[in-house]
Structure formats: structure tokens, C-alpha cells
Amino acid sequence: MNNTIKTDRRIIKTKKAIRNAFAELLSEKDISEITVKDIADAAEINRKTFYSYYAGVYEVVDAIENEIVSAFNEALRDVDFKRDLNNPYGIFKKLTAIINSDMNFYGHLMKMNHNTNLISKIIQTLKLSIKKSFSEQVAIDEKTLNLVVDYAVAGMVTVYQSWFNSDRTQSIEEISKTISVITFSGINGLLAGKN
Predict the structure, then answer these.
(1) What is the reported pTM?
(2) CB 30, CB 114: distance < 8 Å
(3) What are the CB-based long-range contacts (under 8 Å, 24+) for 145-153?
(4) Longest C-alpha distance within the chain, in Å?
(5) Residue 189: predicted pLDDT
(6) Whole-number Å distance between alpha carbons of 14 and 44
(7) What is residue 143's predicted lDDT score, i.e. its pLDDT?
(8) Are the CB atoms for 39 and 48 separated by under 8 Å?
(9) For labelling alongside 8, which of 16, 25, 80, 89 has CA 20 to 30 A away?
């Protein structure tokens, strides 16, 4: 049984190395220019090891998308929007924990300039999850829900991207607290807290 645990840890570590190497490469060049050799070299593994886990570059993309969406769905599953509207930082605290769990990986993703399609696809999937979760708990018409989610998610992603590309003088927790107030109370909510 102990060998199984070591093997599982090795698999997890190798997959994480592949994923992080790929995310780093994505922050430097277009996805169509990334090869298995590039990923293997950056992950410090051989191509045979890469192929033990993935059939090719686009399978890594699918795995990353699924992992991100799964992590955010898990966080949303416990959210009670009616309760958390009064204290929205609880929602953002979970999102911050996800980012903190692998700061390098999310940092590379947020620095992607070339691969906007990948980020767009992830954002679209997350929007659908948020809409589903929100509409199950709060009575709101679909057009308004679409506007709210589009506005909130676009703002959050932009702020997190700016933070990852800055000198990071504020902590991600501070950024998340501010975003939570703006998202649920607007700019007036933020200004009211400053007075």
C-alpha cells in the first residue's frame, strides 16, 4: 500500500509539472506553436513520460479546463447566494483559496496574451456554472442574470489579471475583499465602507 501512495504522489507531481510547464509556455507563445517536446523540456521529463499521461498538447488543454472548472464548481457548490449576499467575501475567499493553492499556475494563466481563446472558453464555462448555481437559489429573470454574471466575471478576471501582472503590493486577499464589495454592492458600497 505504501508503494501505491508513492506512485500516486509521483503521478500527481508529474502531471502538475506538465500542467505548470504548459501554462508557463502559454504565457510566452501561442498554443499552436507549443510542442510536446517543449512541454517535456520545460517540465524536465522525457516525451515518453509525457505520453504516459497525455496523447498530445490539446489533451493537456482539456485537462486544464476540466480541472479549473471542477475546482470552481466545487467552490460554488457550497455557496448559499441568499445568505452570502450580505457577506460576499465568503464566496471570494473560496476563489482566493483556489488561486493560492497553485499561485504559479494561475499566474501563468492570467499572463496569457496569445491564448485568449483558452481563457475565453474557461470563462464561458465558469459563467454557465455561476448562472446555474445563482438561478437555482435566487429568483431573477434570465436577461438580468446574464448581464449580472457577464459584468461581474469580466470585472473579476480583469482585476485578477491586472494583479498578476503588477508588482503585487496588495495581497490577493485584499484584492478579493474589494472585488467582493464592488461585485455585490457596487462602487457606492465600496465608498460607503471608506466613510
Answers:
(1) 0.73
(2) yes
(3) 152/183, 153/123, 153/126, 153/127
(4) 61
(5) 64
(6) 9
(7) 92
(8) no
(9) 25
